[in-house]
Design goal:
mainly alpha; two-stranded parallel sheet; elongated
Length: 95
């Protein structure tokens, strides 16, 4: 699923660039990526693909992402905080 997601995202970016060219839009500015929930996983996979192709990205923002289920549950069970939401807060572990 990773490779097909990356390819679909890349195809959409290239298609958008062609549409902009057809509309005579010369400059588009920096590329920003953003994803929510499952889209955050897709965003991270797309970021990885773009970086492998040396396509510059200005910034990436993701939210509501529980890509590491063990860390999610471990944090919720063993380190609850009074400010926590009533649902399991997801986060990404950077290695």
């Amino acid at each position: 699923m990773k490779e097909s997601t990356q390819q679909a995202d890349l195809d959409m970016l290239m298609a958008a660039k062609e549409v902009l060219k057809a509309l005579h839009v010369q400059e588009t500015g920096p590329l920003y990526l953003s994803g929510w929930s499952m889209g955050s996983w897709s965003t991270l996979m797309f970021q990885q693909k773009l970086e492998s192709l040396h396509i510059p990205i200005k910034a990436v923002s993701i939210a509501c992402n529980s890509t590491d289920v063990f860390a999610l549950i471990n944090r919720w069970v063993h380190n609850p905080k009074p400010i926590d939401a009533m649902w399991l807060p997801g986060y990404w572990l950077c290695s």
